[in-house]
Design brief:
Elements lengths: L10 H15 L12 H12 L16 H7 L3 H9 L15 H8 L2 H9 L14 H7 L3 H8 L27 H8 L6 H10 L1 H5 L1 H17 L5 H24 L3 H8 L9 H12 L7 H10 L10 H10 L20 E2 L7 E2 L2 H72 L1
Antiparallel strand pairs: 1-2
Helix pairs in contact: 1-2, 3-4, 3-5, 4-6, 5-6, 5-7, 6-8, 7-8, 10-14, 12-13, 13-15, 16-17
């Protein structure tokens, strides 16, 4: 569509945009407004999509497409629906050159951002003032989205590996592993238990672990030796190759990762710290082949003086190097697998979070030794919070009291002045 074709949206198109916007608002309305059931709105969007007068990528008076509206509101499910119906992820008719990816990045919704990347969103496009989606997200402090975009690995990068090359008789990577492998490379959570869960679910990666490891090693080499070296990706692909190799060995021997996962979760007697996890990650860093990589040096420097069990852990250091600060600021991290936004708490101590019951059950054999003392700690923290609250309240009362006194003083002064004035008047009479 040429720019001069841009026109005001039709009534049907306006209704369509409204349905998308309202779908979003449903989650943000206050209690006294009538709630619009999300499901009904989704159905409305679906119905409107079928209308022949609505073209999926029509633009409104600012050049914004429905997909961009949905992306800006972080509505992953609507974006998914629009993309499935052929919406152009890279439409560029917006007045300020914003793309759907830029809108998603601004929204701060990492899931929406990831979805658009998976749909082929270009990361190199710039808006009318020359900013990419990453730069825009960084500018408004949406660091999770910055990390998602920076570490995004496209499935296309695996295409060379599914072709039969040279004297080979079979491709280096089976076609059906492209999607699960690309998805794994895109993980922001590097926790070995999370990887173990994922590998177990995608056992093809374990059955072909040697091929997967070779592919990852080759990607790592490419990251280090190409003209545009990508140290983050090199560290990441190397780490994954190491974990897949270890898991592959276990899987070959035992036919499952269950036991290995349990060992990874198990904490030591004294403080519940998982030594095996720490050693696994430290070993993977040690085996990184490219000694001229500055990130490798950063890892070694950070970890060399740290005793096993002290902070920072190898996982923290590696995550920081690969993802930035991400894992340091979140207090809702699953104690078992490192996923963020883990909302479930241990009901006894309320001091540890989990994704779900599975994660909690797996952690219990370690956690049960510390649950009681953590519960006591929780009580102390709560008491302290309460005391602080009381103190704050008292301080406020005192402040108000002082202000009252000042006010009274002023009043008295005025009265004294008035009295003197009257006495003066009497004396003069
Ligand atoms: Zn978990
Ligand atoms: Zn507990």
């Amino acid at each position: 569509m040429a720019a001069d074709e841009k026109k005001m949206p039709s009534e049907a198109e306006k209704k369509f945009i409204d349905a998308i916007v309202e779908f979003y608002d449903e989650f943000h309305e206050s209690v006294d407004t009538e709630m619009i059931p999300a499901q009904r709105k989704l159905e409305e969007v679906q119905t409107l999509l079928k209308e022949p007068t609505i073209k999926i990528d029509f633009t409104d008076d600012t050049g914004t497409t429905p997909l961009q509206h949905a992306a800006f509101r972080g509505k992953t499910d609507i974006c998914q629906l629009l993309l499935a119906n052929g919406a152009d992820v890279n439409s560029r008719f917006h007045d300020n050159g914003y793309t759907a990816l830029m809108f998603a990045a601004l929204s701060g919704n990492a899931e929406t951002t990831r979805l658009l990347l998976e749909a082929g969103a270009r990361t190199d496009y710039t808006n009318s003032v020359g900013r990419t989606a990453t730069q825009m997200a960084a500018f408004v402090g949406q660091h999770e989205c910055v990390s998602v975009i920076n570490n995004y690995f496209s499935k296309d990068d695996l295409t060379p590996y599914i072709k039969i090359q040279g004297v080979d008789t079979e491709p280096r990577l089976p076609q059906e592993l492209v999607a699960p492998l690309a998805k794994m490379i895109n993980f922001a959570n590097l926790h070995p238990v999370k990887l173990a869960f994922y590998l177990q679910e995608n056992s093809g990666l374990l059955e072909n672990s040697k091929k997967v490891v070779r592919t990852l090693e080759s990607l790592c080499e490419k990251c280090m030796k190409s003209r545009d070296t990508n140290h983050v990706m090199a560290m990441k692909t190397h780490y994954f190759s190491f974990v897949v190799a270890e898991a592959g060995k276990v899987y070959k021997e035992k036919g499952s990762l269950d036991e290995w996962t349990k060992q990874l979760i198990k904490g030591r007697q004294s403080d519940g710290f998982s030594v095996m996890q720490e050693n696994l990650i430290r070993e993977s860093i040690k085996q990184f082949l490219y000694s001229d990589c500055p990130l490798f040096h950063q890892c070694v420097r950070s970890l060399a003086p740290v005793k096993i069990g002290d902070d920072p852990t190898a996982l923290n250091v590696l995550s920081q190097v690969i993802n930035g600060q991400r894992f340091f600021n979140d207090d809702k991290t699953c104690s078992t697998c490192g996923e963020i936004k883990a909302e479930k708490k241990c009901s006894a101590c309320k001091m540890v979070n989990y994704c779900n019951q599975t994660c909690q059950k797996l952690h219990w054999s370690t956690h049960k030794k510390f649950c009681k003392s953590l519960a006591e700690q929780y009580v102390r923290i709560e008491e302290m919070k309460k005391k602080e609250e009381e103190l704050k309240q008292k301080e406020e009362e005192l402040k108000k009291h002082k202000e009252d006194i000042e006010k009274r003083k002023g009043e008295i002064e005025t009265l004294v002045e008035q009295k003197e004035e009257i006495e003066k008047q009497i004396a003069e009479q």
